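__Record contents__

***
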Amino acid sequence: MLCTLRRWLRGLEPRARAHLERGWLARYQPWLEQRALFRFQRQPLARGVAAGMFCGLIPGPLQIPGTLLVCAWLRGNIVAGGVATFYTNPLTTVPLYVLAFYLGALVMPGTHTLPAWGSVVPGGDFSVQALGTWMQALGAPLLVGLPTLGLVMAVLGYATVQLLWLAPALQRKRRLARSR
């Protein structure tokens, strides 16, 4: 299955290059090519996933532009980076922010307690404004915990892509060692 995924990803590269040769992106192709932004190889994919995992914790509509900038800086695949940001969505944002709060509280000196939703939001009704008020109440531990969690997620994403990409080669090596 992993070999099939690798072949499929490598098959995407010529199609992405063909799209780059046409239209408004054609004049930027040398810059894009130099930075490996559309290469579907192990290192650019791993760096793209790491950038997407880190930038996925950026609030709202800044995730994809942030990922594009980080991918250009790290020479990562922007398709993989953009897809990797989708681990954050309306269902996972609150649990991730709570995890970031606890991670920040672990890193910061002193004791910090997670403010209860009812103590911050009068009436306990859920709305975007109520969520914003609750996030402000999380304070400094959240501000420290978000980049820390982003770095942890980026390292895990990078390592996962590296391991998944190398898994078929490692399996072949083991089979050859057993057959000798």
About this structure: Residues 2-179 form one domain.
